[in-house]
Here is the input.
Amino acid sequence: MRTPTVCSEYLVDLLQYIENHGVDAKALITEVGFTPEQHLTVQGRFPLRLFEVILDVASVLLDDPFLGAHAGADSSPSAWGMVSYLGMSAPNSRAAFDAVVHFSRLLIDHGDVMYTEADDEWTRLTWVVPERKPVSRQLTEFFFTSWYRANKVILDRWCNQREVYFQHAGPEDRSEIERILEAPVKYKSDANFVKFDSHFLERPTRFPHTGIHDSLVQTARSELAKLQLEDRIVNDVMACVVRQLPEGVPKLDDVAAELGMAARTLQRRLNNTDTNFKYLLDDARKQRAKVLVNEGELELLDIAAELGFSDQSSFQKAFKRWYGLAPGRYRLSRQLSKGLDS
Here is the structure.
């Protein structure tokens, strides 16, 4: 439920690239309608959708259809810092790619990176994003070119055969994107991926060191865990709401107090997710109502009180809104269904 984000280094590099090419910060803010720095999360990350907005607006302002690819190629290797160090200290390129697969969310916290060995000759490194939350062409090309530039030294040394495939459509003239990636590029593919010589996986890395690599893995896991804090805060709020419901409908202040934080802090944490306190309150009551009705141990009046409703009628209206049936009919249908199954 958390909002997809990108690392702050990506934001800094993109803003610097835009300014270096003639668009100052004020002009950019006017066009996008927000100040980027005001939208950083608690962890100092930037919402992915706003990052896409900046890419798309900058592409128009600079009249550059390859803005994403150009900015990605120009981005600092520091964005890939942890993942790059993991790759360099890994025993071979296979372990280096494992680092990309497991920790790519430190760069873009959306979708998953995976590699598959199709046959003895070719391997694919694919960025899989949710179908319901596709990403723009500019963002995809930014991510791929930044990855290529961060790993250019080892790729140029050991991986001469490679091709790049994009799901999105692109211009007929692919010479510019192929110049940046130094590889053949194909659009309208079944996925976003890099295809390369499988023998590359067994090649040594630049500075293999088991001790350093293991230590970096632990650090990367810790950093990745921080990204999952917002998911946990949602679960914590839902559980807290359920505990407080028998005493009445809890308010944000009540939940924040039980969780040991200020209400403003909790609100800020929830703002980093795709939800809000009102929605979580309703969802917690909905889920708890289904459990209690299915159990069949409490009368509907008692369930209404357990969920903080002032009367049974209000509970029945809410339940029908949630599940399409009044709670009594829902309970009966479930009991009949169980009887048929047995």
The chain has a mean pLDDT of 88. Strands lie at 5-6, 46-47, 112-117, 122-128, 162-165, 185-186, 192-197. Residues 277-295 form the longest helix (19 residues). The chain has 17 helices and seven strands.
